[in-house]
Amino acid sequence: MHPFSLAARMGWFAEGRFLGKVLDEWAVDAQEFVRLRLPHLLLVAAIAILLSRMLRLITHHMIRVAEQHAANPLRISQVRTLAGVMRNTGLAIIMLITGLQFLDALGVGEGVFIRVTKVWLVRQLKENHDAGSPLCYQGYQTRQIINPSVLVAGLIFSSRV
After folding, report:
1. Is there a contact between 147 and 153 (Cβ–Cβ < 8 Å)?
2. 58-95, pLDDT tens digit by residue?
3. Looking at per-residue confidence, does 145 or 94 come out higher?
4. 45-82 core/surface letters (b: 16 or more CB in 10 A; e: else)
């Protein structure tokens, strides 16, 4: 045995004492994590990287085809804008799903994530209302939407919990 582990098992960390039992449980939990959850996390990370690379290749291909076949520079800039929007939206979706998978593997349910998002949404809407913004919490008055992602996130997450 390693000298540190021998020293750690003396005093407060002795085998029958409370902190010794906690240390034993931590060792069991660490072994379980490495054996069961870590491979899942590595697979999810590899799939996320693969999907992000594929998305990058597709958007670069879109731009390259537009540059080769379009005679109008306005059309090329439109395709570049569309490719950027597609890439950023796709990456956001990939990261959201990957993050939810990581949280699930770590034992944090998606219900916690949804509740935190709802609290954040209500605070954002209240801040907008206090600042005199037309987007406010009472009745969702939307004459001018300052941040549409706040409204969309609220509609999605409020229906899930």
Report:
1. no
2. 999 999 999 998 878 898 999 999 999 999 999 999 99
3. 94
4. eeebeebbeebeeebeebeeebeeeeeeeeebeebeee
Distances (CA, A) of 62 to 26, 52, 66, 72: 50, 15, 6, 15
Distances (CA, A) of 37 to 60, 98, 105, 145: 35, 14, 6, 42
Rounded distance between C-alpha atoms, residue 126 and residue 117, angstroms: 14
CA within 13 Å, CB half, 66: 18
Between 71 and 3, where is the model more confident?
A: 71
Q: What is the DSSP letter of 33?
A: I
Query: Six-digit token pair at 104?
Result: 């699930």
Q: What is the DSSP string of 47-71?
A: HHHHHHHHHHHHHHHHHHHHHHH--
